[in-house]
Amino acid sequence: MQVFALVDGNSFFASCEKVFRPDLTDRPVIVLSNNDGCVVARSKEAKKLGIKMCQPYFQIEEFCIRENVAVFSSNYELYANLSGRMMSTIASQVDCIDPYSIDECFANMSGYEGLGTDLTQLGFRIKDKVFKDVGIPTCVGIAPTKTLAKYCNHLAKHYGGLKGVCNWLDLTPQRQAKALACEPVSEIWGVGRRYTEHLEKMGIRTALDLARADAEAIRNRFGITLSMTVRELQGTSCIPLELVKPKRQQIMRSRSFSHLVCDKDDLLGAITFHAQECGRTLRREGTVAHTVGIVLNTNPFRLQDVQQQAYPCVGLPYPISDTNTIIHCARRLLNQSYRRDFLYKRTGVYVGEVVPKGAVTKDLFEETETEQQQIICELMDSINTRYGKNTLCFAASKLGKGTWEMSRARLSPGYTTCWKDLPRVGPLLEETVPF
């Protein structure tokens, strides 16, 4: 029988901030979005204070000071590193995993029961191992389908009596029905607001109502996706583990500015920075792109300003992955699209028609990337991997950086990604060598 586990980091961003800060163990913690705008993560202590997700920080700033809430800017480098450690730890305990997002993954538990392994105890072992080795608290949901595993994870997270692990197979049919009946249909994976509105009009209000619905009738009205959800709730696995992720057909790197930008050189700096990221991603994934484009947007909410929402793109005569060519194309598109005195809020770079490098058929008369360009790019990648991101970069990426760079005034140290931010224990004492 197929058995899945869904392992999810609790309040992941906030938990990452607590790993190297024991003084924050019982203190409310929130993490803010880009440019320190809205709340995107809350510790359990912050949730108890009534702080809502996506709440603008300026509305609760005084409240956070009064309640001694620790507030952090998003430290994506730290979160990605701890996520990788968490995934590696989970993978060491099971046959294989299928990462679903930065803070959760599905794990294959099929066959373990036949070897005499208690799946619930295996769930607790994974939970304890991740907390011991990484410092991230997790919950584990175990079930014969991905949708039920996700639902069990939700139950494990919200019902303290389960102690962080919920195994669907441990429940009697009566308890399974009760577990489904205690949550609204909106808590089911893949059932969004629109689905919820239509389902409630049909009298389907709880997860149990949806599990007892006719899958074919749901398919006729809503399509195959929701029909698969119904079958999964009924115990039939329709969504397998994705052990090999499909390659992306487009890669985009963009970011909103902390302040409105009108200077062309400042925009060029941001464009160059994002182009470097696109090139690095292409080479890391072993792919090449046939098109290069840029994003150039003003703020649509400032109705008093002249607006521009530009996404110009250029096709390439041959597929590329070298950063220099991407920057050259992006710069040309910027020159064509830039309007003086416009106030820009966001810019970025994207590469399209992305294919594996080995799938490209070379033309005898077609120009290709020079060997020297490829060597330079690979050398830069290796140096940046060893000594830190953007140790080597294109000079234009430094233009106006203080103007367009994302505002992260409450950024925590890069404990695991930057040498100078390594945690220190006590003062450094000089010792005299006795020989």
Helical percentage: 25-40%
Biggest pleated sheet: 6 strands, antiparallel
H/I helix tally: 15
Structural class: alpha+beta
Write down the secondary-structure element order.
EHEEHHEHEEHEHEHHHHHEHEEEHEEHH
Global outline: globular
CATH class of one domain: Alpha Beta
Radius of gyration from the alpha-carbon trace, in angstroms: 25 Å
Distance between the termini: 66 Å
Average of per-residue pLDDT values: 89
What fold name stands as the CATH topology of one domain?
Dna Ligase, domain 1
Number of strands: 14
At the fourth level of CATH, the homologous superfamily of one domain is DNA polymerase, Y-family, little finger domain
Low-pLDDT runs of 5+ residues are: 431-435
- CATH architecture descriptor of one domain: 2-Layer Sandwich
| Proportion of strand residues | 15-25%
Protein name: DNA polymerase V subunit UmuC
GO molecular function: damaged DNA binding; DNA-directed DNA polymerase activity
Keywords: DNA damage, DNA repair, SOS mutagenesis, SOS response
Organism: Parasutterella excrementihominis YIT 11859
How does this structure look, described?
Among the domains are: 1-117 and 125-137, 3-Layer(aba) Sandwich (MutS, DNA mismatch repair protein, domain I); 250-404, DNA polymerase, Y-family, little finger domain (Dna Ligase, domain 1), CATH 3.30.1490. Strands 9, 10, 11, 12, 13 and 14 form a six-stranded antiparallel beta sheet that branches. It has a five-stranded mixed beta sheet with strand order 5-6-1-7-8. Strands 3-2-4 form a three-stranded mixed beta sheet, with helices on both faces. Residues 431-435 have low confidence and may be disordered. By secondary structure, the chain is an alpha+beta fold. It has 15 helices and 14 strands.
